[in-house]
Hints:
By secondary structure, the chain is of the alpha/beta class. The chain has one domain (about 5-155, about 205-285): Rossmann fold, CATH 3.40.50. Helix content is about 40%, strand content about 20%. The protein has an 8-stranded mixed β-sheet with strand order 1-2-4-3-5-6-7-8, sandwiched between helices. It is globular.
Amino acid sequence: MSLYKNPEAQQTMMRLYDEKLAACGIEYESVYVDTPAGKTHVIISGDAKLPPLVVFHGINAGAPLALEAIRHLNQTYRIYGIDTVGQATRSAETRLPMKGDAYGEWIAATLDGLQLEKVNVLAISYGAFLLQKMMAYQPDRLLKSVFVVPSGFVSGNFWRSMKELSFPLMRFLRSKKESDLLKFMDAFFITKDKHSIEMQKTLLLGFKMDYRRPILVKHQDTANVKTPVYVMVADDDIFFPGDKTLKRCAELFPSLKDTYILKQSKHVPDQSRYAEIEQIIAQWLNN
């Protein structure tokens, strides 16, 4: 059974996916890898001789949204933007259990299919949960790990989330009014464009959202991580507060090498910050 409530919603999401990919302005290959969780779609950009950089995107965002902010890194890395299964992407609609090794096994099968042994990984938002699963399942495959506004380390403030996220969301689901949608998006967007508004509306009304929260990582999940770790947070992140995230990462990773705070930023960084984000990540990877 499809995760989309109707064919029109799926068509809209795939159109938005393609529009964002075209807006990245990069040369790329589009490939599918067979895994036990179904076909996994991967966008590959950059010369085959360059070192690999695997990118895990945010929830239901799809690889193009993740690649948009770091697209120039394809000049120094071969980028593999992996579409997560069970989300509104071009991969299989298979939803895996949050507990256990299911996601770790899926990632391993995807990397095997791409013939990648050891990789650098950039994990954005929900994608951090996937990197944490990889750390627990196959830490030896990691070269460097970069987390950006990461999930899975801490939770946001309950009462703030209710006021700024849950209540506006419930109002929008009842009213279907764009004004209520924008109020909901205010909690995690600074600037909202036509693409982001249409995407959020289509997801909330036309997709069977997965509201399971990423399981918070434990010490035993990161105990075998010896390779360098880097963390970038936003100072006004309603989902994963930046100060709490940095404190938790310092406790979890003896190999934490550097951190960076996006000042005056909400969970979804403004496009005007993309050059800043890309520059810091490039410094970390090239260090």
